[in-house]
Design goal:
This protein folds into two domains: 30-200, no CATH class; 213-362, Reverse transcriptase/Diguanylate cyclase domain (Alpha-Beta Plaits), CATH 3.30.70. It has helices at residues 30-58, 65-87, 92-112, 116-119, 126-135, 138-156, 163-203, 213-230, 244-251, 253-268, 294-310, 336-356; strands at residues 233-241, 276-281, 284-291, 321-328, 361-362. Helix content is 60%, strand content 9%. Strand 2 and strand 3 form a beta hairpin. Helix 3 runs antiparallel to helix 5 (126-135) and helix 6 (138-156) packs antiparallel against helix 7 (163-203). The protein is elongated, with a radius of gyration of 31 Å. It is of the alpha+beta class.
Length: 381
């Protein structure tokens, strides 16, 4: 059995085996969240710094208490950005608080300066609301969009005597900002869907919907760690469909595909939630799972064999499977990927022994070498 050089992804997913591979972290994926968080922190810090410099050099803020309020708000803006930039991440609630802080700062600035139209145009909120659209959930973005309208109304109120003129200006400017935020939000959702679909395609077999080699390797650290922590064995079960080539030759590849799909459904309904079932190529399938010892592994392998024998395609075709089983007790210091393929190779050899004995059976358990330098067998359970 030949195996390609796999790429290991130490993600440490949950123990339960999902029906489809897990998608990217929500919302937006970790790298995207970091970028959006840093943008938000940079906007807050640079906005506060610019306002402070303007206050010091241009005296644009009104004198007295209002001027100190303006300066203190700029300082608060810069201080709030520092821990966010240091952590390079913000939870949705924290991001919501930062964006609302930016809205509040904008309103305070507009009330504190003599010429809001010149020094505090609503477009200064463009980057904060776009960052919010990339970081926040739907209802949180709705809160920000409402706050944007309120901030624009507060900022523009001193510049317009007519309530109608004010309402028109607020609708136009807040509408532009909220429209930009909504566009970014929809773009983010589209990117999320594409990332999820790409992840699913890279980890699943398109014909059967089962996981593939890559996902099998990704799950190896979890299974190895679980077996080590619990003092259990890791079992690899290799199933190869008997006389599958003859079925294809006699009835066509469409019939063979139907049988594979029926077998996949039957096996998926049989394996335990924490087991990993994958199609590794052709008519060969692999199941990895943590077991107490030979007896439990043998019972599981026999259930898998029976599941294949009971599967029937829509055309009424059915097959049997030769099943090979290998067990190992994981030890510290071993290369998990190499150990995985050694274990699968031993199960593969046992499967060929079952096939040579006539098929539709489970071969005796094999105990491969364990660890990078240690060999031997382990006690049966």
């Amino acid at each position: 059995m030949r195996h390609p050089a796999p790429v290991l992804d130490h993600r440490g997913p949950d123990a339960d085996r999902p029906l489809t591979p897990p998608g990217p972290p929500a919302p937006g994926g970790l790298p995207f969240r970091r970028v959006a968080t840093l943008v938000l922190a940079a906007v807050l810090f640079l906005g506060g710094l610019t306002g402070a410099v303007t206050f010091a050099l241009d005296a644009s803020a009104r004198e007295g208490l209002t001027g100190w309020l303006y300066g203190g708000t700029m300082l608060l803006c810069m201080l709030a950005a520092v821990p966010v930039a240091a952590r390079r991440r913000a939870l949705p609630r924290q991001a919501l608080g930062l964006v609302l802080l930016a809205e509040l700062v904008y309103a305070v600035v507009a009330l504190c300066i003599d010429d809001p139209a010149r020094y505090a145009g609503p477009l200064v909120l463009l980057l904060p609301v776009c960052a919010a659209a990339w970081l926040l959930r739907r209802w949180e973005l709705g809160v920000v969009m409402v706050a944007t309208g309120v901030s624009c109304a507060v900022a523009l109120a001193p510049s317009y005597d007519s309530a109608l003129d004010l309402a028109v200006q607020v609708a136009i400017r807040a509408g532009v900002l909220d429209g930009a935020a909504l566009g970014v939000f929809l773009l983010r959702r589209r990117v999320q869907r594409l990332l999820h679909e790409t992840g699913a395609l890279s980890r699943t077999d398109p014909l059967t919907g089962l996981f593939n080699r890559r996902y099998l390797v990704e799950q190896a650290p979890r299974l190895w760690g679980q077996a080590r922590r619990d003092g259990m064995h890791l079992a690899a079960t290799v199933l190869d469909l008997d006389r599958f080539k003859q079925l294809n030759d006699a009835h066509g590849h469409a019939a063979g595909d139907g049988v594979l799909q029926a077998v996949a459904r039957s096996l998926a309904a049989t394996v335990r939630p924490a087991d990993v079932l994958a199609r590794t190529g052709g008519e060969e399938l692999v199941v990895l799972g943590v077991v107490s010892g030979r007896k439990e592994a043998g019972r599981l392998a026999e259930r898998l064999r029976s599941a294949v024998a009971d599967a029937r395609s829509a055309d009424g075709h059915r097959v049997t499977a030769s099943v090979g089983l290998a067990l190992v007790r994981p030890v510290d210091g071993e290369d998990v990927v190499d150990a995985l393929w050694r274990l699968v190779d031993h199960a593969d050899a046992a499967m060929y022994a079952a096939k040579q004995a006539g098929g539709d059976r489970v071969a005796p358990v094999r105990w491969p070498a364990v660890g990078p330098t240690r060999a031997g067998t382990v006690a049966e359970g």
